[in-house]
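Service request form, structural biology core

Requester: graduate student, group of Dr. S.
Request type: structure prediction, single chain
Budget code: on file
Notes: please return the result as structure tokens.

Sequence provided:
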Amino acid sequence: MAETRPPIPDPIKRAVRQRCGFGCVVCGDFPYEYHHMTPYAEDPQHLEENITLLCTRHHTEATGAVPMLPDKMVREANDDPANLHAGITAPTLLHYSSEPITIVMGNTTVKGHPGRECWALGVDGNGLLGFRFEDDRYLLSLSLFDQNNRLLLRIDDNELTHRSDAYDVERTGNSLIVRQRRGHILLHLEFTPPTQVKVVSGRLWWNGASILFNRRGMVVREPGTGSVTIMEGTFIAPCGVHVYDGDDDFGAIMRIKAKRFPYPGDGRDFDAVRASLDDLFDTGGRGAGVDSVRTDSQVRPRRPRLS
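Core staff response, request fulfilled:
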């Protein structure tokens, strides 16, 4: 008779993800599987302390008829997960390509011109969400900050990585959900390579600017004055929406001048904040190092990097 196993409760899954640094404890990779170190057949219950994360390869090696990954090594990795040791997660490659791309933000859609980069959202001249076009390929970039200009997650040229000390990052299928605390979704993305990325809901921050996305629309929040609805509809443009509080040189089709929420580091420019984030991480050789901001296009926005 086939084994009937109840699903692992969501709170236990979240606790395991947090403890394991949101990736395989051996190598840090995603996708991962929930692995019972003492087999479920021997101890038929879901105990958080008995569950770890293993990528498909290492899970297969650990559970084969003749285990190629010994239980002792799995338990040692569980005690010192690769991602927690590194400070950031191992990069996950997203497979966007040369076909025309679409960025959906709430009920707003931005489509790029064929063969040209497309930035759907920028703040103060810095691109938070968009695609570069290089070597006949589209390369997705996204920067997720909290309200204190703390970089939480990045997608840099199709490579996704995030802080391994996050409260929760849940990846299932083509969906990614970032939570700041229980019941509070900071960002919900859906990836549909090779052509589309969708912001289902959430909020993007930079320099006190707050852009909120939900099914009802895409709005800029302002302190003390409510909110300003940006737009809805479909636009074909190299730059979609720009939120600014000074000079506007982003070249966007929709420009919004908005008041800001207070945040640490007032008066510092983007590069200074980025440098402070670089100092925060010890990537353990995982990253490629900090490079200079690309300036080969007048409209190309700057993008933050974790490493």
